[in-house]
Amino acid sequence: MLEGYNQRLIEEVAQRTSELHQKNVELSFKEQHLRVLLAAAPVGMLELDESDRCLYINANGSALTACSVEQAMGRHMLDFVHLDDRDKLQQIWPDHLD
Question: Which domain holds residue 19?
């Protein structure tokens, strides 16, 4: 009885492993597709964490801010906003400038 149960568990693990592998392949493809889209976007894009610090900047964002990807990582979003534009940003997004 234990041998039969063990065999079923082995088969179930193998099936689940195969399913996870397929999902990882699909996820990898989608991630690559997203990276291509972000790199080709004709605008600057930032991804921010919950503290409004840069997690990602695309090539156009890097060019617009004159900040390399390495320099951008971890910087607060306000570091990317010109001083003259911060008042307007305060009106639009007040919770992030306190």
Answer: 1-40
Whether 90 and 51 share a structural domain: yes
Predicted TM-score (pTM) above 0.85: no
pLDDT of residue 95: 72
- CA–CA separation, 85 and 94 (whole Å): 13
Shared-domain flag, residues 49 and 29:
no
Q: Are residues 72 and 33 in the same domain?
A: no
